[in-house]
């Protein structure tokens, strides 16, 4: 059995185009592989997980007067997207649900223990976010029965008093751990 060795013929533009195309595809594949490798090394900002300390309502905004979007059982893991400046409410994701949970009911791992976010506040390193009702509701709640009253809720939100600032609730400079009930 003989095998033919094909050598490029000098000046054959077909071979030049084919090898250039192959190099372009190879370069693109390597760039994609490199991007995936680099991205896997960078921790995601939104990948901070907290646990609900009791069964909680997930609200459509950072205030208890907002409609309930869903509720979560005690011990549910949630991804914390961020918390408002007062550290009283955090925007969370649980499965396909998204909304706001009062931080007294969220436990976050810290220094080998767990701390309620309302107690740890800015010391926990969670991102701080602003709430803008219109875009937030447009993105997450268009199928909710109360979405049609968005302008009512917007007016109510606009008339709210300014939020109080976060204050350190721990008795000392260290953060108090969450009490666990068995």
From TrEMBL:
KW Plastid (keyword) present: no
Any Pfam family hit: SH3_3
Comp. bias (Polar residues): 171-182
Ranges of residues in domain SH3b: 55-107
Bilayer-crossing regions: 32-51, 71-90
Comp. bias intervals (Basic and acidic residues): 159-170
Signal peptide start and end residues: none
Region (Disordered): 159-182
Gene3D superfamilies per record: SH3 Domains
Keywords of this entry: Membrane, Transmembrane, Transmembrane helix
Protein name: SH3 domain-containing protein
Organism phylogeny: Bacteria, Pseudomonadati, Pseudomonadota, Betaproteobacteria, Candidatus Accumulibacter
């Amino acid at each position: 059995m003989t095998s033919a060795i094909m050598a490029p013929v000098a000046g054959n533009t077909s071979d030049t185009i084919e090898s250039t195309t192959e190099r372009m595809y190879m370069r693109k594949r390597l760039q994609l592989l490199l991007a995936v490798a680099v991205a896997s090394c960078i921790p995601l900002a939104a990948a901070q997980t907290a646990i609900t300390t009791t069964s909680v309502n997930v609200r459509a905004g950072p205030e208890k007067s907002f409609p309930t979007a869903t509720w979560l059982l005690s011990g549910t893991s949630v991804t914390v997207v961020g918390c408002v400046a007062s550290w009283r409410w955090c925007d969370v994701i649980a499965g396909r649900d998204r909304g706001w949970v009062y931080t007294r009911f969220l436990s976050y791992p810290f220094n080998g223990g767990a701390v309620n976010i309302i107690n740890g506040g800015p010391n926990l390193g969670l991102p701080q976010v602003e709430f803008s009702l219109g875009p937030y509701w447009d993105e997450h709640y268009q199928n909710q029965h109360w979405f049609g009253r968005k302008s009512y809720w917007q007016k109510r939100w606009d008339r709210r008093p300014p939020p109080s600032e976060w204050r350190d609730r721990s008795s000392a400079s260290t953060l108090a751990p969450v009490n666990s009930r068995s």
